Amino acid sequence: MNKIRKSLHPVLAFFTLFSxxxxxxxxxxxxxGFQRPPLPxxxxxxxxxxxxxxxxxxxxxxxxxxxxxxxxxRWLVLEPIKKxxxxxxxxxxxxxxxxxxxxxxxxxxxxxxxxxxxxxxxNQDLKWYGLDSKTFNFNLFNFSYDINKxxxxxxxWLVTVIDCPEEIQNVRMTAGCNSGGMFWLNGKEVLMLSxxxxxxxxxxxxxxxTLKKGKNIIRGAVINxxxxxxxxxxxxxxxxxxxxxxxxxxx
Length: 251
Fold this sequence. Notes:
The protein is an alpha+beta fold.
């Protein structure tokens, strides 16, 4: 009797395997005998190109329209200021204001730096880059990597110019950033993003603002410790619709 049971084991195993295979094919909507196409090759771990053109285009002297849904994607961005930041939960309102005042490249918030210009912040000599992001957001983590700078514990300064053919009243600046940041419009603080945040579109909105006819200067500062550094910004009207009747320049 035991010999008969032992002889049945391979047969039972075969039918069990066949039944499982049939169940899997049926559950996934695939006929018996279906073969998945081969998976694409796994890329080499890490990108070692350090090339700005992967994520950005060099900003020209020609004005551009906002990105899809009104996002401002042209910015003058300063090489990152290295900061000793162990954790992101230190980004309180007071911490951000004090840090941005101490590590400021210039106290005059109406000055627009030049693409390629060098400035000194503390003991660091830093260069300005005029860039158009290839996406609606401006990924500072990618920027830092692309210029072969450290990726964590950094402070980024940003400037852009919004040109309006006519005055636009009752708009709000909205932004999301990772991890903390502040934004100014024509020299006045309009947005504070404190705490350890993820980048969420329209995460914080300003009070009602007026974009004046002609040039409007936006300055921003984004800071991160461990993790990503990223932000997005646009203007919306009273109905929450993106403001698109503007252009963006670098001077």
